[in-house]
């Protein structure tokens, strides 16, 4: 899903399909969307740096594995994915094509599925007492939404 979404969000895909922008993005809107994209990328960067040695592209156990619930992880359980989703949705809105929006949605759904898989792993790895408490306090991807 993530790979297919990445292909669809690429500008040359819409061009190859002959799709034209569905809406007009003015200069001010484009600047605002670039700012939103940068905020998403900054969140991703902050979360990656904050994890340090605990980060991995694959779901795996790390030495001295423990729950990280501060920094960006105090706001959402998966801030790297949240930041990527924010950046991709802003990018798709700037491209203004339905195929780009579909690509962003596919990537978002793929990242949500990966986050769910990570949650099952962390629940087993860290134990239900620690991780369930964190899940009740902190939303998965979007701050201020229900926590499960």
Commentary on this structure:
With 148 residues, the protein is an all-alpha fold. It has one domain (2-17, 27-56, 65-137). It contains six helices and no strands. The protein has helices spanning 2-9, 11-17, 27-51, 79-95, 98-126, 128-137. It is elongated, with a radius of gyration of 17 Å. The model has no long low-confidence stretch (mean pLDDT 91).
What topology does this entry show?
Blueprint: H1 2-9, H2 11-17, H3 27-51, H4 79-95, H5 98-126, H6 128-137
Compute the average pLDDT.
Answer: 91
Largest sheet: none
Please give the alpha-carbon distance between the first and last residues: 22 Å
Total beta strands: 0
The percent range for strand residues is: under 5%
Helix content: 55-70%
User: What structural class results from the helix and strand content?
Assistant: mainly alpha
- Spans of at least 5 consecutive residues with low confidence: none
Order of helices and strands: HHHHHH
Gyration radius from CA atoms, angstroms: 17 Å
In DSSP terms, counting alpha (H) and pi (I) runs of 4 or more, how many helices? 6
Coarse morphology: elongated
Give the tally of structural domains: 1
List keywords for this structure.
0% strand; 65% helix; mainly alpha; elongated; 148 residues
What is shown here, in short?
With 148 residues, this protein is mostly helical. Helices cover 65% and strands 0% of the residues. The chain has six helices and no strands.
